[in-house]
Amino acid sequence: MMDNEVDVFYRELPKVELHAHLNGSVSCPTIEKLISRKPHLNIGHGMTAIGKGQRRTLDECFQVFKVIHQLVDTEEDILMVATDVIKEFAADGVKYLELRSTPREEKHTGLTKKSYIETVIKAIKQCKSEGVDIDVRFLVAIDRRNGTEVAMETVKLAEDFMLSSDGLVLGLDLSGDPTVGHGKDLLPALQKAKNCGLKLSLHLSEVPSQLEESDLLLDLPPDRIGHGTFLHPAMGGSQGIVDKVVKHNIPLELCLTSNVKGQTVARYSDHHFKHWYQMGHPSVICTDDKGVFSTDLSQEYQLAASTFDLSREAVWKLSHDAIDCIFAPDTVKQQLKQKWIYLKPQVFHYRETDSL
C-alpha cells in the first residue's frame, strides 16, 4: 500500500523537465514501432538491450542510442518519436517540457536540418491541438563534435526559428562527447546566439578534465548548466568556479540516474545534487535520457527524496522552484505557478486519506 501511495504522490506531482534529449527519451514501445516499420534494417540480433530496462550496462545504453539513430531518419519517424515522447512526459505529470535535439540531415531520405526542426515543432503543435496537458518548447542542440562552422550554422537556424516559431524555439543546447574539442572554439557561436536573444543551456564539467573550459564558458554566462558534475570542490572542481555559478545565479540541470549509469558518479548518495541543494542554489531534477536510462521524472524525484531525505513539502518546493528556471517568458511562469497552486490540494490529498 505504502509503495503505491508513494508512487501516486510522485506521479501526481506537477513537474518541469528542462534537460531531455529527444532521441535519448525514446521508449521501448516506440523503438519497437520503429523496428517494425523498417524490417530491411534487420535490427533484432543486436537489440538484446532494448527489453532489459534498468539492467542495461553503459555499453548497452550507447548501443540503444546507435540503434535509435539508425531508425530515425525521416520526417515521419521524427514526428512519431517526438509525439510519443511528449505524450509520455505528459502521462508522467510533466506540465512544462523543454526538449532538445541536434538537427540532422539524411541525404538518402531528403531530411534536412530545417525540416528536422520543423517536424519537432509540428509534433509540439499536434499534441497541443489534441489537448495534451503539457507546454512544450524546443532547444536546438550544437554537437561539440561537429566543430565551429557547423555550430555557427546551427545558431543561424535556431535564430530563424526563434523568430518564426511563435515562442516554441527558445534557445540552444551545447552537448555531445565531452572529451572531444574545446569550448573556446565554440565561444564565437555561443556569443552570437546570446547576442541575438537565444537562451543558452550548456553541458559543463561532465568529465573531470573540463574545468578550464567550464571556467571560460561561465564568463558568457550561460542561462543554465547541464550536469556540472565536477564543478564543486567536493567533486574535484574549484571554489572559484562555484563562486562564478553563484554570482550569476545559474541554475543546474541535475540528472541522477544518468550520472550513476553513465558512471561519472559512483552512487546516488555521492551525487552533486546534495552540495548545490544544501547551498540553496537553483537545482532542477531532470531525466537526460529517460528511454535509454529507463527512468522517468517521477522516479528521479523519488530517488532524490529517498537518497537525500527530502520531505514531501521539500519535494514540492523543488518542483515549484524549477518554474523560475524555464526559458519561456514570465507570463508562462505565472501560468505554471497558478497551475501548481491549483493542483497542490489534490496532490497532497493522497497522503491525508491514506493516513486516516
UniProtKB/TrEMBL annotation:
GO terms for biological process: adenosine catabolic process; inosine biosynthetic process; nucleotide metabolic process. This is Adenosine deaminase-like protein isoform X1. Its cofactor is Zn(2+). It comes from Gymnodraco acuticeps (Antarctic dragonfish). The gene is adal. It catalyses: N(6)-methyl-AMP + H2O + H(+) = IMP + methylamine. Keywords: Hydrolase, Metal-binding, Nucleotide metabolism, Zinc. Monomer. Belongs to the metallo-dependent hydrolases superfamily. Adenosine and AMP deaminases family. Residues 14-339 form the Adenosine deaminase domain. The keyword Hydrolase applies. InterPro entries: A_deaminase_dom, Ado/ade_deaminase, Metal_Hydrolase. GO terms for molecular function: adenosine deaminase activity; metal ion binding.
